[in-house]
Amino acid sequence: MKEKMDVELSIEVTEDHASARIRFVNTNKENIYFDQHGISYEDIDYGHCFKIIDQDDLKIDYCKIGTPGTLKPEYFITLETYDSLIVNFSLTDIYQFKKGNKHLVQYSTYNRSHLGDEEFKKIESNITEMVIK
Q1: pTM higher than 0.85 for the full model?
Q2: Would you say 63 and 72 are in contact if contact means Cβ atoms under 8 Å apart?
Q3: Which distant-in-sequence residues (6+ apart) come within 8 Å of 120 by Cβ?
């Protein structure tokens, strides 16, 4: 089955802090399963889940290292047909931004939808512009 979902990224910037909100919507007729580590559920970024480019077309480096540990069945979240899941991140806790610069941000990661599933599926959101003042 080819998994179909909507992935919407929105960013809120206040003073020197940026928060990202990702909303996943299952548009399939069947359930989708998310690996919590793969999508960095509960504001724990286990991997480099964002593509961030500054106004000079330079990639912003990831500055925090996570350790996902062993993948277990209880780490999977079920998203039923037309249900949604929201994940929030503090971007300024895991990336170093230059104040005053424009940045383009996209949520981009891979999800393994079942334990033992060797195939990873790419998940990408819209691209959003932000400036840390």
Answers
A1: no
A2: no
A3: 38, 110, 111, 112
